[in-house]
Amino acid sequence: MKLLTHAVIVLLALATSFNAFAQGSYNPEQKLKEMGIEIKPPAPRTSKIVSAVRTGNLVFLSGHGPTRPDGTNVVGKLGADLSVEQGQEAARFTGIQLLTSLKAEIGDLNKVKRIVKVLGMVNCTPDFVQSPAVINGFTDLMLEVFGEKGKHARSAVGMVSLPNGIAVEIEMIVEIED
Fold first, then answer.
1. How far is it, in rounded angstroms, from Cα 20 to Cα 27?
2. pLDDT tens sequence across 93-149
3. For residue 8, pLDDT beyond 90
4. Of 62, 81, 118, 157, which sees the most CB atoms within 10 A?
């Protein structure tokens, strides 16, 4: 009987979550808080390159790297210095950085209609063939935060090097509500 009661509770929770998605009441900002992820305003950029450009209802985000909460970057090569799991963590940190820039550009992550396209670049050895598995760290985060709106078209490629030796660089295109 206890098992049946537990199963009913789980099904009700899933149905409630699904209804929230279907009715558009899902709140990615609240989800991030529940996950313990804090989105802080980004530091002002001093370069000639901007973090995000909005044109119409699309936001194009520049390549971002894996910055940890303490401000340090994840550096190293997959296939030499880092495991796939460490690469996935780096991709997740990169996703948080992209969400930070996106929020700065649009003001509220509830305006996200869809994550459209992602390019994930992995700093790796020439024989490393698991770049898609590494970038799954990013994709999993987007799905967790945005649900169906987080599903995206994606490329995941290996690179011989990335700026300052970072492990991962990711850029994305996001469709937003007006």
1. 9
2. 999 999 999 999 999 999 999 999 999 999 999 999 999 999 999 999 999 999 999
3. no
4. 118
Whether residue 131 is contained in a domain is answered as yes
Do residues 121 and 165 touch, judged by C-beta distance below 8 A?
Answer: no
2 found inside a domain: no
119 occurs within a structural domain: yes
Question: How many domains does the chain contain in total?
Answer: 1
Q: Does residue 68 sit within a domain? A: yes
2 half-sphere exposure, CB direction, 13 A CA radius: 0
CA distance 54 to 38: 23
Q: Are 87 and 125 in contact (CB under 8 A)?
A: no
Q: Number of helices and strands (H, E) in the chain?
A: 4, 5
Nearest CA among 40, 122, 118 for reference residue 89: 122
60's enclosing H/E stretch is: strand 58-64
Full residue range of the structural domain in which residue 145 is found: 27-176
pLDDT value at position 24? 54
> SS3 of 73, please?
strand
